[in-house]
């Protein structure tokens, strides 16, 4: 039986984990500034879907597999670090919106964002803490896992959308190509800095 205290604790946990800075939110800020919220929405939904699948699989035993076979975890860390550096370079070298439109630049796709969650260290920490702290003991495991993961993503949606909207607001202040280059460079550097969370 789910209690009100359990629900409030779970919501507060979800807000604190999904609303704080990390690779996803840094990239959403950059994407919101460059492409706007509407074009960033598939990126947002991809994050939510990827985390939903990851958290559900952790509850069903994927976390145990990683504990037993650390080489798999290490391999994902390397892949995640390299991919994050690639994304950092793409962000840092992105042209201003007018040039981006002419050059066919586009934000991260739904499936790219979803797949990245499996190499995102913050997503793993969130998933492991979520399952360890909030997965109900009673009832069918797979149903509980899916419902808990879905609830987490419902709470996370406005939290990560905030970062994209924050980027949109920043983008309105960037009126020159030089300002855009500085902003993109800073966002790229912040994305690259997130590699530290992966390799440590």
Automatic annotation (TrEMBL):
The chain crosses the membrane at residues 42-66, 78-94, 114-135, 147-170, 182-199. It is a multi-pass membrane protein. It holds the Pfam family LysE. It is found in: Cell membrane. The lineage of its organism: Bacteria, Pseudomonadati, Pseudomonadota, Gammaproteobacteria, Oceanospirillales. Its main location: membrane. One of its GO terms (biological process) is cysteine export across plasma membrane. Keywords: Cell membrane, Membrane, Transmembrane, Transmembrane helix. This is LysE family translocator. One of its GO terms (cellular component) is plasma membrane. One of its GO terms (molecular function) is amino acid transmembrane transporter activity. Signal peptide: none annotated. It comes from Kushneria phosphatilytica. It comes from the Bacteria. PANTHER family: ARGININE EXPORTER PROTEIN ARGO, ARGININE EXPORTER PROTEIN ARGO-RELATED.
């Amino acid at each position: 039986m789910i209690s009100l205290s359990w629900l409030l604790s779970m919501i507060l946990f979800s807000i604190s984990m999904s609303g704080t800075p990390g690779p996803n939110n840094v990239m959403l800020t950059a994407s919101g500034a460059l492409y706007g919220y509407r074009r960033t929405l598939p990126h947002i939904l991809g994050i939510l879907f990827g985390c939903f699948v990851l958290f559900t699989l952790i509850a069903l035993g994927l976390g145990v597999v990683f504990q037993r076979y650390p080489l798999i975890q290490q391999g994902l860390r390397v892949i995640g670090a390299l991919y994050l550096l690639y994304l950092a370079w793409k962000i840092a070298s992105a042209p201003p919106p007018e040039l981006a439109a002419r050059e066919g630049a586009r934000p991260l796709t739904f499936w790219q964002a979803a797949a990245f969650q499996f190499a995102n260290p913050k997503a793993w920490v969130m998933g492991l803490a979520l399952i360890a702290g909030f997965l109900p003991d009673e009832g069918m495991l797979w149903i509980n896992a899916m419902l808990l993961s879905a609830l987490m993503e419902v709470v996370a949606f406005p939290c990560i959308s905030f970062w994209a909207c924050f980027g949109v607001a920043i983008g309105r202040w960037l009126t020159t190509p030089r300002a855009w280059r500085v902003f993109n460079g800073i966002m790229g550097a912040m994305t690259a800095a997130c590699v530290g969370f992966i390799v440590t």
